[in-house]
Fold this protein.
Amino acid sequence: MAKERPQDVDPRTAIEMLREALYESGQIVFPSLSVDHVSPDLKLINLGRVRADVAMQLAWTLWRGDGG
């Protein structure tokens, strides 16, 4: 994937890509993943809160780097 400039990235598209990648890499779900509507020019994404076990699963998945 080509690296895009921050101003060119649609936050809704980024959320869907992140949601899919997290799920495929170990069925990791961030229930509060959403677009931050307070500062639309910054195109921020709220990762939200997750349970401790989900955070650990994400950490292990990233350390393994194998997606599963």
Helices lie at 11-24, 52-64. The two ends are 21 Å apart (CA to CA). The mean pLDDT is 86. Residues 11-24 form the longest helix (14 residues).
